[in-house]
Structure formats: C-alpha cells, structure tokens
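Researcher: Re-running this chain for the archive, since the previous output was lost when a drive failed. Same request as before.
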Amino acid sequence: MKANYEVFAIEANDPRMSQVEQLYKDLYDLEKEFGVSITLVEDGEKIWRKSIEKVLGKFAQIIVVSLGEEIVGLCYGNIKMLPAYFGSIKSGYLDAIIIKAEHRKKGLGDQMIQQLIDWWVANDVVVFEVERQITNENSAKNWERFGFKKELIRYRKRVVI
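Model: Regenerated structure tokens:
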C-alpha cells in the first residue's frame, strides 16, 4: 500500500509546529555526527521557531512532508537582500533539511527543495545558496543534481572564552 505523503508550506499557527521543532533539533543532533562545532543550546529549537514565526511566508518558508498528522520532513529557507555593492539582489538560503530515516529515498527531499525553489522564484530571488557539512558527500551529489555549484569552503575555529 502506497503512503499518502503531502508536501506543503506550514504556517506558524499550525499545531504540528511542535513536530517541526523536534525535527529541527533532530537535524542538529545528526549534524554532531558530521563534526559540526556549533550546536543548539537547550531549547534552541523553540528559540529558532520563535525567531522566524513573524517572517514565515514573507521572508522565510518551512516546507514540510506529512504522512497523516505526522510531520516526517522539513526544509527551511529564507530570503535576504544582498548589499547595494552586490546589486541589492535577493538571495535565497536553504538553512535546514531533514527527513526521518524511515521515509528517505522516496523523492520527498526533492519535492521539498523544488517547492522552496518555486517559492524563491515567485519572490524574485535570483541567487540560491546552501551549505553542507564537508564530510557529507551524499548531500554534495544531491545539490549538484539540482544545479548548485561548489563555490566556497567555510573554515571555522572555536575558541574558549
């Protein structure tokens, strides 16, 4: 029997946003395995949610995959205006994407990404950006398949204060 997945932009007042918070936390827990040096603080997922609620649909979008009432995937992106010295163009940044392990390899991530790209295009965004963990080679292939090109490598050094 085929699962009935739905891919859509979730609104800030949707009661399933608590599931989105949990997935966001799960993403950062997973990124620890890839050696990320910046981690969420306690209740960081709740702080994140509160920080974006007012701009959802305007300058940010959360695309989710649901199976019934369960949220099984999220893709979060935002829009920023680049400075005048870069032409004041709109840039879309894909900040987070995760799908629960048991729902992967079904094209759901592609659907979320495409819906986010469609939203960016509808909002006159001309540059799309995404970052990946340097050790996550699987994601590199995915972004290249979507037409993204490798452009920068980010270095980070953590210091103790």
